[in-house]
């Protein structure tokens, strides 16, 4: 039993005879600088906010978010497409088509592979929305 106590007692003695370690002189702790926000992730977050607003029926707030992005220099086809959809939901067909033209000018047509024959022959997911049908009827 004496051997089993030998190691813990030596450890305690070693701790008792070590010099105390002083805390560093009151040096200020450097503040952690937040990483600069990634512009691409900010755009994604804004598009998601607008999408949620449109799903909830708040097309005006989604449109104002897209206009803020557009005027802030984020003139992408996605921003224009979301703005077109929000304008259509808000009942402003003329603005919806202006935004749609901007989306096409920015390259939206190259990515919209489901729209092969005409702007209104979309894939089933697009045709499932009431806004698609409303826009289709207004253009006939």
Describe the structure.
By secondary structure, this protein is mainly alpha-helical. The chain has a domain at 39-113: Serine Threonine Protein Phosphatase 5, Tetratricopeptide repeat, CATH 1.25.40. Helix content is 64%, strand content 0%. It is built from eight helices and no strands. The protein has helices at 2-16, 39-55, 59-71, 77-90, 93-105, 108-111, 124-127, 130-139. Helix 3 runs antiparallel to helix 4 and helix 4 runs antiparallel to helix 5. It is elongated, with a radius of gyration of 31 Å. It starts with a helix and ends with a helix. The model is unreliable at 113-118 and 120-125 (pLDDT under 50).
Q: Can I get a quick summary?
A:
The chain is mainly alpha-helical and 140 residues long. The protein is built from eight helices and no strands.
Structure keywords:
140 residues; mainly alpha; Serine Threonine Protein Phosphatase 5, Tetratricopeptide repeat; 64% helix; elongated
List the helices and strands and how they pair.
Elements: H1 2-16, H2 39-55, H3 59-71, H4 77-90, H5 93-105, H6 108-111, H7 124-127, H8 130-139
Helix pairs in contact: 2-3, 2-4, 3-4, 4-5
How does the major sheet shape up? none
Classify the secondary structure makeup into a structural class.
mainly alpha
Unreliable stretches: 113-118, 120-125
Shape: elongated
- Give the tally of β-strands: 0
The CATH topology of the domain at 39-113 is given as Serine Threonine Protein Phosphatase 5, Tetratricopeptide repeat
Tell me what portion of residues adopts beta-strand conformation.
under 5%
CATH uppermost class of the domain at 39-113: Mainly Alpha
Mean pLDDT: 74
Distance between the termini: 98 Å
Q: Residue share in helices?
A: 55-70%
